[in-house]
Amino acid sequence: MANETPKTKITRNPITATLRRPMVQAFLSDPITLFSGVFLTLIFLAAVFAPLIAPHDPIDRQLPLRHISPFSLGIATDRSQIPPVAEERFYILGTDHLGRDMVSRLIYGSRISLGVGVLGVLVSGFAGLFLGLMAGYYRGWVDDVIMRTVDVFMSVPLLLLALIVLFILGTGFLNIILVFAIGRWMLYARVTRGVVLSLREQPFVEAAQAIGARDNRILLRHILPNLITPVLTVAALDVPRIILTEATLSFLGFGIQPPDSSWGTMLASGRPYISTAWWVVVMPGSAIFLTALSFNLFGVWLRAISDPLQRWRWMKVSKEAKEAGIRN
Amino acid sequence: MRKYIVRRAGHSVLVLLGLMGLLFFAINILGSPVRLMVDQDAPPETIAALNEKLGFDRPIAVRLGDYFASLLTGCQLRCSPDFDKSVQYKVSARDLVIDRLPNTAVLALVAWGIGMIGIPIGILAAMRPRGLIDRVVNVLTFAVVSVPEFWLALMLILVVSVQWGVLPTSGFDGLGPTGWKFMVLPALTLSPRVMGRFAQITRAAMIDEISKDYVSTARAKGLGESTILYTHVLKNAAISIVTLMGDELAGFMNGSVVVEIIFAWPGLGLLLIGAINGRDLPVITASVFVIALMVMILNLIVDFLYTWLDPRISYSNG
Fold first, then answer.
1. Residue B81 CB burial class (10 angstroms; 0-12, 13-18, ≥19)
2. Residue pair B293/A180 in contact by the 8 Å Cβ criterion
3. What pLDDT digit, counting tens, does each position of B41-79 carry?
4. Which of A10-14, A114-118, A223-227, A324-328 has the lowest mean pLDDT?
5. Which residue of B has its CA nearest to A314?
6. pLDDT for A177
């Protein structure tokens, strides 16, 4: 209890010692982060290589094989050949109410769910970064206008905002990305502005101004690199929120529309059969849950590791635990 | 202190007005709002007739004035078409919203009450950062905030209502003593996220406080750990906890929309979705206004709590 504060060891300056250790080592030494990182990599690979990995066609309907339970075989009709031939297929996670393979649908669904998550963060991140830079660097009325707008947007629940925007513009993949750009930019604007406000008083910015560097150059060369870590941390923690919101919107029927399907759409279409075929609801739900959880755990690790003091605490414990078999 | 409160309240009112102005802009961005109220393939004559009947054919500046006038007077004198009678129910949108508001508020209150358990959990985790309890709590809290609410709701219905046959799958029977059965599952669906966030925020605030110098001083002068933790650290951490919770308020409204729909709980969320599906513009505007007003009032309460916990804040700002 008594040695929680990092000031207790003076002998070998542990803060600088741990900072020299590479991030990879910190990543590998934490089992939970390692697990979430591996899971995210797998999901991303599945999304990118979906056509190669998916065992069957995700929209191939096999009506006689409706709601086949997980880990079972079924005789499907291969309609791509003329005349159609019967073939035995193995369904790892069963089939849905139209006899479509759940695994393939989950793999293809990851493209939409992750796509919305990543694109939503990218678009809102760049918009927020730009506006935050403007607000923090120019201050004055620019700052006032931007930050008061941030206040307005912060007071609306994301789902409410999304529903209104989709009601006005109509649904669709691009409009959903737009929703997240409109609904999440202020997170990045706030963080960016805060960092810029403190940086612009730093000697290195003053020095750049003194030798006559233009605003563009100062912002891009001197201030922007310092923003990467804080913005990236916010982004990593916002991906799960966007994925969850997209799933909710799709579940409510305002998100991704058929024939495209995200995990949320799969869940919505499986809802009526929840008491007879549990897997049509449990599987997409688990996919959303595990992905969101992995992003969250990874994001929080990223935040901890980018803060020198927290990073030291994190690494110190895992190292000491190995050496002495005790924690803290 | 009073000056600070008045300024905060003024700021909140401006934010709310700004939001409603934005909504007006959004509704009018694609032309006449009537387009949003009719089917996509409605004949132009119908649109023109409705335009005239509801007064949407007047100049936009006049309508904007009307819009804010009816917003500020609560539709007492005259009502702009944006706030007038509901298209679906043929009653005033204001009455509909006021009627539904208590249902949402009570459900949220119960869910938050259960979610308060997160605070002691967070304290427990903060006592030994990166210790075993902390690691378990860390993963568990992130697990509960990563669960989609609608999925949790469906799972609860599947297990509790369908398999065990204990509680009703959905419905509403007033907020009185007979209606509690219908409230259990919606509240249980909403509370884990609140609990998880409470625990995370409490943990972070406590760890931050524990590493400050006054804690070392207190230890050096021989105070017991529990005295330090509960009388010094917790008191100071409460300020950060309250502030951070303020930022989360709007987010918690998300869950209640979905939960109300799944459990057919007649609150604002259900009203809003019904209005969107029925293209009922007055009800949509009124619901947005009331939900934003709720968030604003809660934020103000948080602000006052904040100054009450730490008087320095009002001195330095007011």
1. buried
2. no
3. 777 777 777 777 777 777 777 778 777 877 777 665 566
4. A324-328
5. B130
6. 94
Q: Which residue in A2, A4, A267 is closest to B151 by CB distance?
A: A267
Which chain B positions have a beta carbon within 8 Å of A246's beta carbon?
none
CB contact residues (below 8 A), chain A span 131-190, against chain B: 148-149, 151-152, 154-160, 163-165, 167-169
- pLDDT tens per residue across span B286-304: 888 888 888 888 888 887 8
Rounded Cα gap, residues A78 and A75, in angstroms: 10
DSSP assignment of B84-132: SB-TTT-SBHHHHHHHHHHHHHHHHHHHHHHHTTHHHHHHHHHHSTTSH
Q: A142-181 burial string, b = 16+ CB within 10 Å, else e?
A: ebeebbebbbbbbbbbbbbbbbbbbbbbebebebbbbbbb
A72: β partners? A91
Q: What does the alpha-carbon distance between residue B271 and residue A7 come to, in Å, rounded to a whole number? A: 56
What pTM does this model have? 0.86
Q: Chain B partners of A317 at a C-beta cutoff of 8 Å?
A: 130
pLDDT mean across residues, chain B: 82
Per-residue pLDDT, A1: 44
Asked if residue A294 has pLDDT above 90, the reply is yes
Concatenated DSSP letters of B193-251: HHHHHHHHHHHHHHHHHHTSHHHHHHHHTT--HHHIIIIIIHHHHHHHHHHHHHHHHHH
Q: What is the pLDDT of residues B22-32, one digit of tens each?
A: 888 888 777 67
Give the pLDDT of residue A12: 54
Interface of A with B in 182-241 (CB under 8 A): 240
Contacts of A293 in chain B (CB under 8 A): 142-143, 146
Model confidence at B203: pLDDT above 80: yes
Position B196 pLDDT exceeds 60: yes
- Asked if B272 and A278 come within 8 Å (Cβ–Cβ), the reply is no
Interface membership of B108 toward A (CB under 8 Å): no
Residue-level pLDDT at A43: 92
Pairing type for strands A72-78 and A85-91 reads antiparallel
How many residue contacts between A and B have a Cβ separation below 8 Å? 153
From the list B129, B154, B253, the residue facing A4 with the nearest CB is B129
DSSP B116-129: TTHHHHHHHHHHST
